Amino acid sequence: MNNDNYKKYLDSYCNLIKESFNMFNFIPEILDDEFNVDFEDTRLLCQTRNIYFLIKYYELFKDEESKFLALRLYKQTKKNYFDPVQGYWKKRPSSGKLNDLYEFSFLIFSFSILYKHFLLDEIKNDILFLFDEVRQDFISKGFESIKDDSGVICQNAIMHLYEALLEYYRVTNSTSTKIEIKLLFSVIKQKFINPETNLIAEYSKNHHETVYEPGHNYEWASLLLESEKLGLKIETKDFCEHLVHSMENMGLSTLGFVYPKLNVSEKNAEFRIWPNLERLRYFLLTNNDSKSDTATKIICQFYFNKCYPIEYIDSRGKALTKKIKATTGYHLISAFKEAF
């Protein structure tokens, strides 16, 4: 697949973001259903992931409109999701104080890349405020606050905090952030890497069963390679290759779709687009033309309809939904950007 086709998909998605923001002054959960928009129930995540999308789109294609739309979206997001009187962020406009590490991580992640292009003190101060919140409420407490009722921690939010720290380090080259990145991965090693398989489990070791999500193992492999490109020696290339090789052997269906997790029934599984995009991202990063071509063909054949992404398919490749989610663009551009 040539880059023009990747761009065609990104163009279509970007146009939906622009249309949605210009219509509603925020990004709704679903981009193609203007008659079922509930502002009060719309997540902060839909805003932050699209700040990132718009800036990456600008970086790739020099579209000035996207760059300045990202800044407008940031300012409007603060109006909608930050309470200046109480001094806290909210997951939804109608929510109380934010206590979701996943949402905090994407705030830091998106604001960091925005700061790179605008260098505004307001954005920098927001990032520092968010770091203080995360250190105080999550890191200093050993991530106790994200445990479920049985004391189990899911690695997903911590992975995205790692990604956010990496983006901030990319922008600032901060020594203290470099140290925090290394310390954060030591938490992953301690709590989630199974010494027998050397794979990254989805839940901490005290979970009643070991669950592996192929999509997150591909994603971790890419993040660790990006760390190395920034001069951070977090893990070896051999470790990344082991993660991916294991998922290639165990994590693909008969038609080549990435399983939601290992050891599930293929017939009854729902196959989301994002794990397949994370697989493609890794192979584009490593210049594996054969594997990236195969992954691309699967994505184009089964996960797009008229240039728009399909979120879920079944084991035969049949679409299970036609709704276009506002959070999917983050995965689209994270993967496709590696082709340019």
UniProtKB/TrEMBL annotation:
<dbReference type="Pfam" id="PF07221">
    <property type="entry name" value="GlcNAc_2-epim"/>
</dbReference>
<dbReference type="InterPro" id="IPR012341">
    <property type="entry name" value="6hp_glycosidase-like_sf"/>
</dbReference>
<protein>
    <submittedName>
        <fullName>Uncharacterized protein</fullName>
    </submittedName>
</protein>
<comment type="similarity">
    <text>Belongs to the N-acylglucosamine 2-epimerase family.</text>
</comment>
<dbReference type="GO" id="GO:0016853">
    <property type="term" value="F:isomerase activity"/>
</dbReference>
<dbReference type="InterPro" id="IPR008928">
    <property type="entry name" value="6-hairpin_glycosidase_sf"/>
</dbReference>
<dbReference type="GO" id="GO:0005975">
    <property type="term" value="P:carbohydrate metabolic process"/>
</dbReference>
<keyword id="KW-0413">Isomerase</keyword>
<dbReference type="InterPro" id="IPR010819">
    <property type="entry name" value="AGE/CE"/>
</dbReference>
